[in-house]
Design a protein that fits this description.
This protein is mainly α. 53% of the residues lie in helices and 10% in strands.
Length: 304
């Protein structure tokens, strides 16, 4: 059986632990700096942080520290540790923010806490926090958004230059659906009525309707809501309200032109390498931007 190797123990083990802790700190700083370096190179926060085995909120925290303080933001102070919970004053501020910003879901509150205080909570913890702050959870009584008090004055101002002898006045409307289901339950402050003012947001259009006051009305059902289709609907509206026969004929020819096809136009641009040229110019623009602008532009690029 071999003997244990001789080792000089003049330096106490506590000192070794201290040095090891210091080295660990520098390793953490090095990891943060290389993370920022990857963001500079165009990587997303998600990709850059997950390849380091850490969570996305951690990546956003590092990036926020860098954007606000540069290298100093990445150098965590001794003994500071990672912030794990809010103080009582911060909880008070959070409640004020929830009421002021009308935050009604776990996702919205979770995002607010991270953006405002750089602290991450689980969904379960958020529900407990909402209960602690005095918020209930239930289906709201929906109140339709009201028109502005000076709606009549605004309408008069916007229409005073219209000459019905020369101009055709047309009201337009589009079918739409609400962006939130009425059956959704939301958070609300206990002691107050659970009501929600809801503005219907158009997320999908099925038809365009044009109601003319002194012209020809029109309703069009469209395949999609792309700008290309919207322009075609306006051309159709001009045709039914056009006196000039030559212009009307020309507009009809435009609509029936086989080359006037969204997919054909896109494929033509693709064949001519136009899209690739635009991408290269965009990448060059990103590389010449600062870090905060670069992150924003990279997000746009990835979505595109």
């Amino acid at each position: 059986m071999s003997r244990n190797a001789y080792i000089n123990k003049d330096i106490p083990l506590s000192k070794i632990h201290e040095v090891k802790a210091d080295l660990k700190h520098y390793i953490e700083v090095y990891e943060k700096i290389t993370f920022i370096e990857d963001i500079y190179a165009g990587e997303t926060v998600k990709y850059a942080i997950e390849k380091r085995g850490k969570t996305i909120p951690t990546g956003h925290t590092w990036l926020k520290s860098w954007n606000e303080e540069g290298f100093d933001g990445l150098l965590r102070k001794e003994g500071s540790g990672r912030k794990t919970k809010l103080t009582e004053n911060q909880f008070k501020q959070l409640k004020e923010n929830i009421i002021k910003k009308q935050l009604t879901s776990v996702r919205e509150v979770k995002h607010e806490i991270f953006e405002e205080f750089s602290v991450s909570y689980s969904d379960r913890q958020i529900r407990r926090i909402m209960k602690k702050l005095g918020f209930g959870y239930g289906k709201p009584y929906v109140i339709p958004a009201e028109a502005p008090k000076n709606a009549s004055e605004q309408l008069k101002k916007n229409t005073e230059k219209i000459d019905l002898k020369k101009d055709i006045l047309i009201f337009t409307d589009q079918t739409a659906v609400q962006n939130k289901d009425n059956t959704n339950r939301i958070y609300y402050e206990l002691g107050t009525k659970n009501r929600q003012t809801k503005i219907t947001t158009r997320i999908k259009l099925n038809a365009n309707g044009y109601q003319a006051v002194n012209g020809n009305s029109l309703i069009l059902f469209q395949q999609n809501t792309h700008t290309f289709e919207e322009i075609k609907s306006l051309i159709n509206l001009r045709i039914v309200n056009c006196i000039n026969k030559e212009l009307k004929s020309e507009l009809k020819n435009i609509l029936t032109d086989d080359e006037l096809d969204e997919n054909k136009i896109y494929n033509k641009l693709k064949d001519e390498n136009t899209l690739e040229t635009l991408k290269n110019e965009f990448n060059e623009f990103i590389s010449n931007s600062n870090s905060s602008e670069k992150q924003f532009l990279v997000k746009i690029k990835n979505k595109a």
